[in-house]
Amino acid sequence: MWRYQTIRPTTNQASLIIYTYLYDAVKKMTSTLTTQWHSLSFAAFILHEIMDNPQEDETPQSRLKQVGMMSVLYIMNQAHQALTISNIVEITKLTRMGVTETIEPLVKRGILTETFVKNSMGRGKARQFEIAPEIFEKLRSFQAR
Q1: Collapsing DSSP states into helix, strand and coil, what is residue 73?
Q2: What radius of gyration do the chain's Cα atoms show?
């Protein structure tokens, strides 16, 4: 593997500046590629988990909606947005019932975990979801191969 340290200039200031810009550019590029790789891995894994493991009384349309919902939830998760019904409704423009009907099978499958937190007004309970940590653990084990 190419090592950046082996080409680092030691005396020429202009060369050092060029090296620094090159190093930063390569570092950004590899970071972007890593992010894209994680997104593709997640999408492929979720597609496999949902489409290849149909639940009883589940239609192909329902499974496809689940895959789409997981794409939205992954992006929200990466943006550090709370995965609450209200936030999901706001982003997807689906009804609360439409979101709930799509989320329930994902919880049943174990792809999402559900907790109850205080709602945004500080009163009552709100359902908050999280992508199950086991999903990311499985992805890490595939990526390590």
Answers
A1: helix
A2: 21
Strands in the chain per DSSP E = 83-84, 112-118, 125-131
C-alpha 54/C-alpha 62 separation (Å) is 10
Query: What does the alpha-carbon distance between residue 86 and residue 47 come to, in Å, rounded to a whole number?
Result: 25
Q: What is the pLDDT of residues 85-133, one digit of tens each?
A: 999 999 999 999 999 999 999 999 999 999 988 777 777 888 999 999 9
Q: 10-143: what fold?
A: Arc Repressor Mutant, subunit A (1.10.10)
Tokens of 136: 């990311």
φ, ψ (nearest 5 deg) of residue 54: -65, 145
pLDDT tier for residue 41 given thresholds of 50, 70 and 90: confident
CB 126, CB 120: distance < 8 Å: yes
Could you give the CA distance from residue 145 to residue 130 in angstroms, rounded to a whole number? 26
Beta-carbon count within 10 A of 25 CB: 10
